[in-house]
Write a structure and sequence with these properties.
Elements (H helix, E strand, L loop, with lengths): L2 H21 L7 H18 L20 E3 L8 E3 L2 H8 L4 E7 L2 E8 L2 E7 L5 E3 L21 E8 L2 H9 L11 H9 L6 H6 L3 E10 L6 H10 L7 E4 L4 H13 L7 E8 L2 H4 L4 E2 L2 E2 L4 E3 L6 E13 L2 E13 L2 E7 L3 H7 L7 E8 L3 E10 L16 E5 L6 E5 L9 H8 L11 H9 L16 H6 L5 H13 L2 E2 L1 H7 L7 H22 L10 H13 L1 H13 L1 E2 L16 E4 L9 H10 L3 E3 L8 E3 L8 H9 L3 E2 L1 H8 L7
Parallel strand pairs: 2-13, 21-22, 23-24, 23-25, 25-26
Antiparallel strand pairs: 1-6, 3-9, 3-10, 4-5, 4-7, 7-8, 10-13, 11-12, 14-15, 14-17, 15-16, 15-20, 17-18, 19-20
């Protein structure tokens, strides 16, 4: 193939992959493969001088097709990249530089005026982005109000943590709707429209500010600018001040943190930028890079060849996914022996053959996730199991109408693996609060047969020896998990009721029931089928849900098994009307200062016999908002209805013993 034709092909392949990458679509190639093709393209362009206008070497990102477009006030240029520490040292020169994470998400640009978030744009192609301001209340740790009253522009990364990603993917049955990685999920989430805001909230996208683009005041120190953002309530990226002499040691130290699995938020490299912001602004723009704005360091992926031992099939939410188990190899300082193969179609694409007769090439993508990128040699073909590894019911292959992807599924609707979300709620902080039982671990234990029902969690010590030998465990983590299980045996009845997964019954409903009946009264009503309609705030629908749940023989068995394992605190009915907030209804909005968070504020109001709701109505007695003059919809509604808008400080004066209660 001629060099010009190869350039044309590479541009097409890379742009198609970018469209999927930025659009939240099915991933077409790994970062490892993309980087290799990009480097080949850059070399050919330099050699031939032939550069297409749509070449990915000439663009800062990808222009989204949907949504309202707006130009950036300040172009969001991309950073030059290197895989060489000496190149970082050369770039730093004799100046102090800041080292920080290159988070693997989507760049967003937030604009503030008068203390209010007025605009939120995606990066888009660096010049024009998509306006997603309607998502501002759905993105976690993105302040919608700040103390600074001038014009402020902030860039940050919207990212989803690995635990949140695993939980969501584990509960998606349709293979076409599953996401390849947290970055892919974040991209798909931020491409949703205003009718899907509930989905955005469920997916827990976090905002991490990484640079202050503009403030009306001059701040020429990068560190000062980031400290300023901290003071305004932003969650900023972790950073360290260093220089050319020390940067090699710093990069090595930060890299080890990634290799050891300490990062909950995905990263795909490191970034350095000058401490002297005035000097950084003097750089020129070359292509789509600002030469002194910063430079990104990307790790050189190291691959290894190994032989497939066998394919392990793991079931979650009815999808039975293949995992390659191979002869252990050393990658990025750790021993790797397993990598996901995704689905049957991916196994066919790679050309997986028989166990022991297939040579794999594997990497650790972003130094974290083992990934099989190629089959170098194979004989025969792989075997698809006829029975589910969890419940041993029959399996079936389904072919997606959209993508044609082949996936394997369990045919048993009662298979334990189809109820991962229930187990996740059971062990959650609001439930039994069992630290160490992540969704990933629950799925693993279900597939190994350690867990089939809630009560099995309290018998995990039977498998202690086996757990200690599992990949990712060891003596200490196993000991910590078993201690957390034992600690959770002593539980408050509110947490216990929440953990049972009774439809419509959450923490608030549990509190109301126990306040009216006490724990013993709750048990008596369950047995008698009396119901809870008489309890304030429960009503016939929630009461009927509890009665119906307990009348199911399987649920009743689950309940009895659990109470034999637990020590549930005995609470008494609390009919007392005594309380500083008794008979009053509050709405709490905006940031809080005296309480740790709004959940703690709400707990205090309820402790003092008050009620907290989410929206302002004629029944609201007080709206608590530290920005009492805000033009927010809740403030406007309160003023229309004559509801007093008070600050947190005023609330404490009225209902908190002069502010000393908390």
């Amino acid at each position: 193939m001629k060099e010009k034709e190869r350039i044309e092909e590479l541009v097409r392949l890379l742009n198609e992959a970018s469209e999927a990458y930025y659009g939240g679509l099915e991933e077409q190639m790994s970062n490892y493969e993309w980087d290799a093709l990009f480097d080949e393209l850059a070399e050919l362009e330099e050699k031939t001088g032939y550069v297409r206008p749509d070449s990915p070497t000439q663009n800062a990102g990808y222009e989204e097709k949907n949504g309202e477009k707006e130009p950036h006030e300040y172009p969001a240029l991309s950073l030059a990249k290197t895989k060489s520490v000496p190149e970082l040292q050369k770039w730093a020169g004799d100046r102090p530089v800041w080292l920080s994470w290159k988070l693997d998400g989507l760049t967003l640009v937030a604009t503030y005026d008068g203390g209010e978030l007025t605009k939120l744009l995606t990066r888009g192609n660096g010049t024009v982005g998509t306006n997603i301001t309607f998502m501002k209340d759905a993105i976690l740790e993105l302040p919608v109000r700040i103390g600074y009253r001038g014009h402020l522009v902030v860039r940050g990364e919207a990212a989803i943590s690995y635990p949140d990603f695993e939980l969501l993917n584990a509960t998606i049955e349709d293979e076409d709707e599953k996401y390849a990685n947290p970055r892919n999920l974040a991209s798909g989430t931020l491409s949703l429209d205003v009718s899907n805001l509930s989905k955005v909230k469920e997916r827990r996208v976090h905002f991490y500010a990484f640079t202050l683009v503009h403030a009306d005041e001059e701040m020429d120190s990068f560190g000062q600018r980031m400290d300023f953002l901290d003071g305004q309530g932003f969650r900023t990226v972790e950073r360290e001040l260093t220089d050319a002499e020390k940067i090699g040691e710093a990069v090595e130290r930060w890299t080890k943190r990634v290799e050891s699995g300490q990062m909950e938020v995905p990263v795909d490299g490191l970034v350095i930028c000058y401490e002297d912001n005035a000097y950084a602004r003097t750089g020129s723009v070359t292509g789509h890079h600002a030469t002194r704005a910063g430079i990104a360091f990307k790790w050189q992926d190291v691959s290894a060849l190994t032989v497939l031992s066998h394919v392990e099939w793991s079931c979650a939410a009815s999808t039975i996914s293949p995992v390659a188990v191979f002869e252990p190899v050393q990658l990025e300082g750790t021993t790797v022996s397993r990598a996901s193969l995704c689905n049957i179609s991916e196994m066919e694409r790679l050309g997986i053959g028989e166990d022991g007769k297939t040579t794999l090439e594997v990497i650790k993508a972003n130094k974290i996730i083992p990934k099989c990128i190629a089959v170098k040699e194979a004989r025969g073909s792989f075997h698809i199991p006829a029975a589910c590894p969890v419940c041993h019911a029959g399996t079936e292959i389904r072919i997606s109408r959209g993508s044609g992807t082949k996936t394997l599924h369990c045919t048993n609707p009662d298979c334990t693996a189809k109820h991962i979300k229930r187990f996740e709620r059971f062990v959650s902080k609001s439930g039994m609060d069992i630290d160490g039982l992540s969704v990933k671990t629950i799925v693993k234990f279900i597939n190994l047969g350690y867990i089939t029902r809630y009560s099995d969690i309290y018998r995990l010590s039977r498998f202690e020896g086996e757990i200690r030998e599992l990949e990712g465990f060891g003596d200490k983590s196993c000991e910590n998990l078993l201690q957390a299980v034992e600690k959770s045996r002593q539980v408050h009845p509110v947490q216990f009721i929440y953990a049972l997964n009774i439809p419509l019954i959450g923490t608030d409903a549990a509190k109301k029931i126990l306040r009216a009946t006490g724990y013993e009264g709750f048990l008596e009503r369950l047995e008698s089928g009396q119901g809870f309609e008489d309890v304030d705030g429960i009503g016939p629908e929630k009461s009927g849900s509890i009665v119906e749940w307990y009348q199911d023989e399987k649920n009743r068995q689950v309940f009895q098994e659990l109470i034999s394992e637990l020590e549930i605190e005995k609470t008494e009915p609390d009919d007392s009307a005594d309380g500083k907030c008794a008979g009053l209804t509050f709405v709490i909005t905006g940031d809080v200062h005296h309480f740790k968070n709004r959940a703690e504020f709400k707990a205090y109001v309820e402790q003092e016999k008050g009620k907290v709701t989410g929206s302002v109505s004629a029944k609201t007695n007080y709206l608590v908002n530290n920005d009492t003059e805000s033009l927010s919809s809740k403030n406007k509604k309160a003023k229309e209805l004559g509801v007093p808008v008070i600050s947190e400080e005023r609330f404490l004066q009225l209902f908190g013993d002069g502010g000393d209660t908390v």
